[in-house]
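Lab meeting, action items carried over

1. Structure of the two-component assembly. Owner: GW. Status: complete.
Input record:
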Amino acid sequence: MENLLQLIVTGIMLGSIYALVALGWVLIYKCSGVLNLAMGELTMIGGYVCLSIYTLLAARMSVTPAFLVALGGSLVVGVLLGLMTERLFLRKMIGEPILSVIMVTVGLSFFFKGIVFIIWNPDTVQFAPRVFDVQNIHIAGLAIERVQLWSFFASIVLMVIFVSFFKYTRWGLAMQACADDEMAALSLGVSAKFVYALAWAIAFMSAGVGGTLLGNINGLNLSISGFGLLVLPVVVFGGLNSIPGAIVGGITIGLLQNLCGGYLDIYFPGGIKEIAPFVFMVFFLLFKPFGLWGWERIERV
Amino acid sequence: MSYLPCGTYFESYLEEQKWWRTPFIKGKMILMLVLLVALPWLIPKDWVSVVCNVNYYILAALGVQLLIGYCGQITLGHAAFVAVGAYCSAMMVLFLPWPGFMVENGLAYPLSVLCAGFMAGFWSVLFGLPSARVKGFYLIMTTMAAQFITVPLVITQYVSRIGGRGHYFQLPPGTIKIGPVEIGTDSALDLGRLGIWDFDADTKVYYWSLFLVLLCLLAMGNLVRSKVGRAWVAIRDNDIAAETMGVDIIWYKLLAFFVAGFFAGIAGAFYASSIAFVSPEHYGWEFSLIWVGVILIGGVGSIQGLVFGSAFFVIIIEVLQRLLGYLSEGFEQSFPTLGVVLMKFVFFRDTAFGLAIILFLIYEPNGLAYRYWQLKNYFNLWPFSYTGKGH
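Predicted assembly:
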């Protein structure tokens, strides 16, 4: 019973990171209709940028301010990269068929992965000195790693910031309008190009924070891009264009992963933890292809 | 189909659909066949294996071209089916108790190639089943899931454990025999009155791959100009319209998945024999993406494009690698960073490939096949050449 509770709590904490990354994905899809397969590489870039700034600063100042500055730095780099990616590659693909747009993001994923490992070492690297204390926190008999608890809080705070940005600010409302009806938004003076660029910038930011947090938990290496791919089961489960769906989906997938890792690993030794979300996704697609809160597409000839 | 020269006309639709519509095309094709057969003697020895690799890419991407280019079903998990074919063939050859005469006469391996095709085809249909209900992005998700379920889970965790040989299967020399010819070893071949010819391992693999490629391309070409192919194209262009016209779309979609999987299985069986080695690393997700990239570079919906794309990708990578090799030999003293570049070659390759896909999609969305088509028309219609848009 205690084991189950432990798995559930850590699953929710892991899932909150997925939810954060999925939020960026959903924003891009909602605003510009691009199905982004490069999300894993975006998380990787954010993680590595934060890591290098952190190792640069950690020698000169104490851990917490160094980490915060590094996180801020990776957010700034993320915004710049997001604006650049949109301007250079994605803007030319507006209105192209779905395969072309998807393959451009696949090309981006190859490109970014290559660039990241040309610059950085492909072996696993850790945040050193450690940002979070290694000692666990004990709450009601559950041992929780500090890094996970902080990741959970950070993801929740960022999600609240992004969602309220989307809901209440002028730019966020422009994004909503563009997502709802692009033509109408254009005629009312909303700049669609600006909205797309903003969506990519936010996606880069949220993925970058996700990558940083994942890097703090496991260390950074090639497998972070695999974590980034888990965003796809998340958005399929929640519905492609639903922000609450992304959050609920992220937490569900995190839970599912942890529970499968905890209970099914005995029967299916090996990588069941990584595969379970995809198996779940296939069955889910068979029964409810539009996700929990996604828009159902009605097709006409 | 390119424009024909002036004065060529047909009297029936059958004539128009022929493979070789004019004597010139026929001559061209025969010349090409002769060149292909003579190729191992025309190019340097160490390039023969590169051409074999091109042939492997053609075979593997053939199913991708069928699914994406002709049937409109986007797949990002084709490496899974290639892996199924490779493992099926290798395990049949290694573990089945073949009767003695079959092994001696070299029937075991060809039979296993056929079985690998069927096995991969059915495995592909299994993951194609959701295509009855979903399409577009959701189908991409299921094919991706096919990749992640097949290669890292089923094959790495379970299939590789059979026989207790660790993570990979080694095919010992002499196990792969097609008729009297052993693939993968240097040996002399008695051609009767023509004398005894020496064939090295690469040349034999090349002929085997050439045979498979010609057979598969011929089958594919005939399929896409038959009723089945027309149904596929109708589904690609508008599946609802195709359904209202009476095309059984579920049946034809599943057929497309089966045929694509069949080709993938043959590709896998060929690759297993050519490197005498099967390991899950050769069938990772990046290969699924590379094969889609290959057909995008070559041209979607064109068999020629598939050939161009495969050749472009493999040869460019090879040239890059060799160039870096020569450079690092010559300049290692003055540029010590080159060693690092070589070590990270795979990442440079990824970067270049990603950039190539993006640039092709933005600036040349019709691929290399379209350029070739323009070139052909330029000469066919000369001196009144018009190379505008349109197919």
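2. GW to write a short summary for the group page. Key points so far: Strands of chain A lie at 137-139, 142-144. Residues 91 and 193 of chain A are 8 Å apart (CA to CA).
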